[in-house]
Amino acid sequence: QLASDTNRGGVTCETVGVPMRDGTMLSTDVYKPALTGRYPVILLRTPYGLRLGQGCFAAGLGEGMAFWARHGYVGVAQDSRGTFRSEGVFRPIIQEQNDGYDAIEWAADQPWSNGKVAMTGSSYMGVTQWQAALKTPPHLVAIAPGQTATDYHDHWTYVNGVFDLWFGQSWVLAFFSPDAYRRNQIAQGIDPESARRNSDAYLVEGEQLISRDWISQVPLADLPDFRTLAPYYYEWLEHPNYDEFWAEVDVESQWDKVNVPALITGAWGDLFHIGSIRSFQGMQTQSSSEASRKGTMLVMTGGGGHGREGVLSFGNVGDQNIRELQLRFYDYHLKGIRNGLD
């Protein structure tokens, strides 16, 4: 146990280090109901930072994980390898297969777990679900990926064969390189607070460079700014065509490895809406079990951009929040509650 931040509204939280198969420790927050017992687990894995210098119940992901604990689950939230409080070197997408498997099996083996694990999360947190599912962890029961994709060459890094320059550069700049900058500074002996301020300044400068200089940089691989902080950016450029590099993480060519049902949520205004639809089609026709084919559902909301699925509107039938729908999905698959999803 690394830290604890108990008790908020009947939910306790502790931070632990979880070992991966190579010994790398990933920082993990565990949210448990007040009553001691064995519960099904809802796992979220993210590279975007659960929190820095804040308690377990910080706004955003912390409150979201506490929601599951208040409804009879243990919520487990983990910083991806090489990000924020976790050890290791970050290499997007490809690292999430083995790490996801190890996190699921660790959670299933804990004294507060009944051995049934589901996953949750949108965007890259949907990627971590699909990648883990490719490894067919024996204790994974269901996933609920939102606003994400399953082919990371087409309609993620490239679009119809053309490198998505805006997406690639802005994604790395906004979400990954500032944390890498901070980690590098700390490794050089700079105190954490100064490293954080320097990282913030780096981001401000980068936001100016991306529209002023980077957009016109050719050849694309000559852009120097990510060489130290995000070497994987250049891996993407080195593989413009669909090849073994992309095939290793492509879920759409490996549906037969996925054997659990998925609640797939998306929005027509989301940049990954095509991925949401293709995921549903692939799961219904090619996934490896009857439970995964029949139990997979797709819900698309009418509006909202990325990260804003919001409320489902069914006209005069009523409205339903996405999280409430996910709760019904988990209750059905992890607790056996007959609630109409069959």
CATH topological fold name of the largest domain: Rossmann fold
Secondary-structure element series: EEEEHEHEHEEEHHHHEHHEEEH
Measured by DSSP, the beta-strand proportion falls in 15-25%
Strand order of the largest sheet: 1-2-3-5-4-6-7
Number of helices: 10
- Classify the helix fraction into a percent range: 25-40%
Which outline best applies? globular
CATH superfamily of the largest domain: Alpha/Beta hydrolase fold, catalytic domain
Give the CA-CA distance, first to last residue.
40 Å
Q: Quick gist of this model?
A:
This is Xaa-Pro dipeptidyl-peptidase-like domain-containing protein. By secondary structure, the protein is of the alpha/beta class. It has ten helices and 13 strands.
Summarize the topology.
Blueprint (H helix, E strand, L loop, with lengths): L2 E2 L6 E9 L5 E9 L5 E8 L14 H10 L3 E6 L16 H13 L4 E10 L1 H10 L6 E7 L11 E2 L2 E2 L1 H23 L4 H21 L19 H7 L5 H4 L15 E5 L5 H14 L3 H6 L1 E5 L9 E3 L5 E3 H14 L7
Parallel strand pairs: 4-5, 4-6, 6-7, 10-11
Antiparallel strand pairs: 1-2, 2-3, 3-5, 8-9, 12-13
Helix pairs in contact: 2-3, 4-5
